[in-house]
Specification:
The protein has 13 helices and 14 strands. It has 447 residues and is an alpha/beta fold. It has two domains: 18-49 and 324-443, Alpha-Beta Complex (Aspartate Aminotransferase, domain 1); 52-322, Aspartate Aminotransferase, domain 2 (3-Layer(aba) Sandwich). Bound molecules: 4'-deoxy-4'-aminopyridoxal-5'-phosphate. Residues 41, 100-102, 105, 134-137, 205, 209-210, 239, 241-242, 267 line the site of 4'-deoxy-4'-aminopyridoxal-5'-phosphate. One of its GO terms (molecular function) is pyridoxal phosphate binding.
Length: 447
């Protein structure tokens, strides 16, 4: 059979063909076993092959898979929205369903803009974001993203939204003056420069994922951000596409800091990869002028709120609660974090270990004491990811934020169902991969 019609991530790369999955493992058609150490793209949080989800899927599909949302509502979508309003903090009582994280952040942006328009503030339409961030691949989401390598090609077509520094403590630009949360204060400076009458919202990932590898802000950061947003009448959008639904040891990562956003974007963990579904959660306060005004959100997709995906997501949420997986993320995360610190003690090329729950990251450096990053051309992230892959471990590459400044990082984020013994196996393969890489880099004269 001719096999060159599918556009794959890297066109000339020879990908193995996946056969099936069970728990934390995936298998290819040659019978090779892989530990899914990143839950794919931080997605498969309940593990693979969960039959309860298959049953829920079959049951819903046998009744109805699709009914257009302009014609019908559905029991599954209504119940899912109700469930999310119970789980979400504060008055985030409304859900708008979409199909991917990019659509969820793009919709968050549109709802924020619409909120102000309905109140008569037509010009309040810029979104402030951060460098070293990723909010999605569609043009609006990319305009809000500070992931240099993903946006570079499209820069002339993107909205020129303002960006501030990320709370990247390992490479803090304000290090010499001590932490006074200046990275958060940059938001205030940015608002003062642009005028709050021109800004709809500030968007941030609670813990930075794809662009830098589980970069976690200092305590007090989000409290300060929220204060500034309130002072200047700017909405706060938390992009919890990667962090949401238990991944970090809380249902929503913002709970770590006790801060309630106005809008939350969710994706990945909502269905744990079983079907595409994502959501934009909106507070009563944000909805109020829309309910009084045009009474419709100007966003949506053909598959929005389809009953099949909603039923799957409901079962995934029920499974997470039944199996206590939010607590598991916290406990297993602690165990894995200690093991990763152990690796960092052994290998000098590991500069930083970070993250919360089962969203953990490693950053690689050529010199640990000066924190010197590798040259991006040396492709260290790709090399470590490929080495682990060959040995049967999947990890997630998370570099490309700021070329030449912060370089190589990976995310380790196994399914929340992982056991301590399975964590030991994961770490063993990771250790062998880092050891081999460090050895090679020595002989190549790169360290
Ligand atoms: N926001 C965040 C924080 C993400 O991590 C991602 C995906 N890596 C997205 C948005 C985009 O989600 P999707 O790939 O489902 O469009």
């Amino acid at each position: 059979m001719k096999r060159n019609h599918l556009i794959k991530p890297i066109l000339d790369h020879n990908y193995p063909t996946v056969s099936h999955g069970k728990g934390i493992y995936l298998y290819d058609t040659d019978g090779k076993q892989y530990i899914d150490g990143s839950s794919g793209a931080v997605t498969a949080s309940i593990g693979h092959g969960v039959l309860d989800v298959v049953e829920a899927m079959t049951e819903q599909a046998s009744k109805v898979s699709f009914a257009y949302r302009s014609h019908f509502t559905s029991e599954a979508a209504e119940t899912l929205a109700e469930k999310l309003s119970e789980l979400a903090p504060g008055d985030l009582n409304w859900s708008f369903f979409v199909n991917s994280g990019s659509e969820a952040t793009e919709t968050a942006m549109k709802i924020a803009i619409q909120h102000w328009q309905e109140k008569g503030f037509e010009r309040k339409n810029r979104i402030v974001s951060r460098w070293t961030s990723y909010h999605g691949i569609t043009m609006g989401a990319l305009s809000m993203s500070g992931h240099v390598s993903r946006r570079k090609r499209f820069v002339p077509l993107l909205e020129d939204f303002p960006s501030i520094s990320a709370p990247y403590c390992y490479r803090c630009p304000y290090e010499s003056s001590g932490c006074k949360l200046q990275c958060a204060n940059e938001l205030e400076t940015s608002i003062q420069r642009l005028g709050s009458e021109n800004i709809a919202a500030f968007i941030a990932e609670p813990i930075i994922g794809a662009s830098a590898g589980a970069v976690t802000p200092p305590d007090g950061y989000y409290q300060r951000i929220k204060e500034i947003c309130e002072r200047y009448d700017i909405l706060f959008i938390a992009d919890e596409v990667m962090t949401g639904i238990g991944r970090t040891g809380k249902m929503f990562a913002m709970e770590h800091w006790g801060v309630t956003p106005d809008i939350i974007a969710l994706g990945k963990g909502m269905s744990a990869g079983y079907t595409p579904i994502a959501a934009t959660l909106v507070s009563d306060r944000v909805m109020e002028p829309i309910l009084k005004g045009s009474k419709s959100i100007m966003a949506g997709h053909t598959y929005s709120a389809n009953p099949l995906s909603a039923a799957v997501s409901l079962e995934v949420l029920a499974y997470i609660e039944r199996m206590n997986l939010v607590q598991a993320a916290e406990e297993k995360g602690q165990y894995l974090l200690e093991k990763l610190h152990g690796l960092a003690e052994r290998f000098d090329i590991i500069g930083d270990v970070r993250g919360k729950g089962l969203l953990l990251g490693l950053e690689f450096v050529s010199n640990r004491s000066s924190k010197t990053p590798f040259d991006l051309q040396d492709g260290i992230t790709t090399r470590i990811v490929n080495k682990a892959f060959e040995k049967g471990l999947l990890i997630y590459p998370a570099s490309g934020a700021i070329e030449g400044i912060a370089g190589d990082a990976v995310i380790i984020s196994p399914p929340l169902v992982i056991t301590n013994e399975e964590i030991d196996s994961l770490v063993k393969i990771l250790e062998a991969s880092v050891e081999e890489l460090q050895h090679e880099l020595h002989s190549e004269g790169l360290i």
